[in-house]
Design a protein that fits this description.
Blueprint lengths: L7 H14 L2 H8 L3 H15 L4 E3 L4 E3 L1 H14 L2 H5 L7 H4 L2 E7 L1 H18 L3 E7 L6 H4 L3 E5 L9 E15 L10 H6 L2 E4 L6 E6 L5 E6 L1 E5 L2 H7 L6 E5 H10 L2 E3 L6 E10 L7 H15 L4
Parallel strand pairs: 3-4, 3-5, 7-10, 7-11
Antiparallel strand pairs: 1-2, 5-13, 6-11, 6-12, 6-13, 8-9
Helix pairs in contact: 1-2, 1-3, 2-3, 7-12
Length: 304
Amino acid sequence: MKLETSNIFENLQIFKFLAQTGSFTECGRILNIPKSKVSRCIQALEEKMGFRLFYRTTRQVQLTPEGKALIEKINPLLNSFEQIFEMQVPSNLQSSLAGEVSITAPEDLGILLLSRFSTEFSRLFPKIKLEVVITNQAIDLIKENVDLALRVGKMKNSSHIYAKKIASIQMMKVQAVNNQIKKLSDLDQLQQSPFISFGKLQKRKMISLMGRGGRPSKIQLESTMASNSFFVIEEFLKVPTTWSILPKFLVEKKLITGDLNEILPDWQVPAEDLYLLNLSGRNMSPRVRVYFEFLIKKFQGIVL
């Protein structure tokens, strides 16, 4: 069987989803195509490649070593947003998908990044209606009936929630330049300087740091000011001698302009994991799935 060039991207996309789900039925359901088409496309791809991509049993489908190698080779291609959405899987995907999709996100990510990404998505999929809820509270997705959520911190999958790690957020110790009455030269001075914490006021907040050569250290801080908004913390930094820990993507421009300065750059704060959560687990509707995949590619394509 000859695999036509026009079908290569579609077959590779089906191959990718079958590898993720391990089920012909589930793959077809996600892509809204018959199970028989999934089977035909995989068979055609295997004949073209000249080797088996999957071990098939009555209960599961698993990648062969050759299939695993192929996934690793094609992932850079499939991770390109333009190429993924030119595949038309299923036919005429951009114009056929319709309905509502909701997402919640923390203030900084929602305002600075998600709003921009969602605007781009809406131009591509005008029939999908987006509802973006910006809040620093971890709302109950089931109770509020929200499809997706961006969350920072360690997340685990459950029977109702599928959590996909999509990025790592670099955190930085910063201080307003005009507040630097004295230059902080060591960790003892840092520990004694007024600290602004994210969340609530804390008397004994332990901060882990990593020095050059992987040398770990911990400092104990007592916050003098606190807020659950990074934007408010930026304003608080105008108070003399204060410092805080903020996401790099939030303060990067002010570091360049000289409004903020990184403190003790030889001691790094561990990065925070960014997860994209889905209410329906892996069983997403096509419109939620396409937005889910879109956001993964957008966040993985930038440095946070």
